[in-house]
């Protein structure tokens, strides 16, 4: 039933995807959204997968490959890490990615980014990385990263496609449209390097506090809304 619904959704709400060719001719920055244990590593908290998840593990693998190429080319990387104070909840979600815990750290495959000179790590305490980049003095880490590196386009990957990724993409596009992000021109989402979580309807029905969240369906919806906001969706990433 779910697969039929996803097929119908893809037919009625198609998401245009094209291969993305990257070269040094256009300055590109890579944005990683929440590649932390609390969302990606099995058994690592309330919002982590409870068993191996093909979509999430594929997202991690694709992100690791991209990150290594960007690092080798000395291209800029910005990684958002979900990070919450234990006494400040984030409704409607249960406690997760508490500051100082294993949950709030990068997945093991990406820990090397902590010592990568071209990588900027930003711990955020909210869903939207753009909002989470705002400092107390009003400056914005993401905006400054774009300006300081003269980035013309950002390639966005991570989790969840329909939550943190989509919200960040929407805010970045709105800021670009307001002229707040020069010289940024394009925001691109790489579909194979994004993922979301899975709560089937039959599971949700057993817990009144849980809302169903079919993975493939919500992944597609996240891509569709990002596309509707003005993002480009990449089916694959190629380096010239």
From TrEMBL:
> CDD domains recorded for this chain?
cysteine_hydrolases
Name the Gene Ontology molecular function terms of this record: nicotinamidase activity
Q: Which InterPro entries match?
A: Isochorismatase-like_dom, Isochorismatase-like_sf, NIC1
**Coiled-coil ranges from the UniProt annotation:** none
GO terms for biological process, alphabetical? pyridine nucleotide salvage
Output the superkingdom of the source species.
Eukaryota
Residues annotated as domain Isochorismatase-like: 29-205
Which family does this protein fall into? Belongs to the isochorismatase family.
Report what the protein is called. Answer: Isochorismatase-like domain-containing protein
Q: Which organism is it from?
A: Arachis hypogaea
